[in-house]
Amino acid sequence: MTTTAREVHLASRPQGWPTPDDFRTVETELADPGPGEVLVRNTFVSVDPYMRGRMNDVKSYVPPFALDAPMDGGAVGEVVASASDDVAVGDTVLHQAGWRTHALLPSRDVRRVDVSQVPASAYLGALGMPGMTAYVGLTRVAALAEGETVFISGAAGAVGSAAGQMARQLGAGTVIGSAGSPEKCEWLTGELGFDVALDYKAAPIGRQLREHAPVDVYFDNVGGNHLEAAIFAMSDFGRIAACGAIADYNADTPTPGPRNLMMVVSKRLTLRGFIVTDHRDVAAEFYRLAGQWVADGSLTWRETVVDGLDHAVDAFLGLHRGDNTGKMLVRP
Question: What's the Rg (C-alpha) of the chain?
Answer without folding.
Answer: 20
